[in-house]
Design a protein that fits this description.
single chain; 111 residues; alpha+beta; 5 helices
């Protein structure tokens, strides 16, 4: 049986996360798509998530990561940042394999 290339790529670059939890999981490929969609480099995502740039690169290349690290990166992507028009851009994860960039949102309240 021949598998489609997209299936093979997603399988090779998936990140191991505890799948028993009921939450939207972020995989390495969706993390990279979200980062690129927001126009962020590896260093900017790392700074916003409170991890090192090497950690982000390793995860995007398919290495395993702690759940707390993945949660911090996902939270940074979901929080987003202001865009050039004064609106807000952030990533919204759709199932384990999808992500969309939402534009024109409102900044989250300060905590």
């Amino acid at each position: 049986m021949v598998l489609p290339v997209a299936f093979v790529v997603l399988y090779l670059y998936s990140v191991n996360i505890d799948c028993d939890e009921v939450q939207k999981m972020m995989r390495a490929t969706t993390m990279k798509m979200a980062r690129a969609g927001l126009g962020w480099g590896v260093r900017e995502l790392a700074e916003r998530a409170g991890v090192t740039a090497n950690t982000v690169t390793r995860i995007e290349n398919g290495a395993d990561a702690k759940k707390s690290t993945m949660d911090a990166i996902q939270a940074a992507l979901e929080q987003g940042a202001p865009d050039e028009n004064g609106g807000w851009r952030f990533a919204e994860f759709i199932s384990p394999d999808g992500v969309r960039i939402v534009e024109g949102g409102v900044a989250p309240p300060d905590e």
